[in-house]
Design goal:
With about 100 residues, the protein is an all-alpha fold. It is built from three helices and no strands. The radius of gyration is 34 Å and the shape is rod-shaped. The model has no long low-confidence stretch (mean pLDDT about 80).
Amino acid sequence: MPTFLAFPTFMQRPEFGMYAENTDAMDLFVLATLACLFLMFGFFAGCGWAIWRRTMKPKPHMQLIMELQQEETDFQEKPASQHPTDPSAPWERESDWWKK
């Protein structure tokens, strides 16, 4: 029995020849299968939407981590001539400051 005929045959029974004892059970099986299929499609669509939303609007702590990773990759992609030769931070003193 084709799937698209499940609804009309469930609503009205034929008078002779096409109806058997298990016709109602077969129709309910088709309806349950279609419901399961639509439920799975809805589940996958919901998961896809949730993944898309998380990438478009990350939580603040995740956005900070992503920005720090981007800065790190930008720093690593710079040519060696643009890197500072002194690895110490500007507020640090020289290593022999106490000798002076």
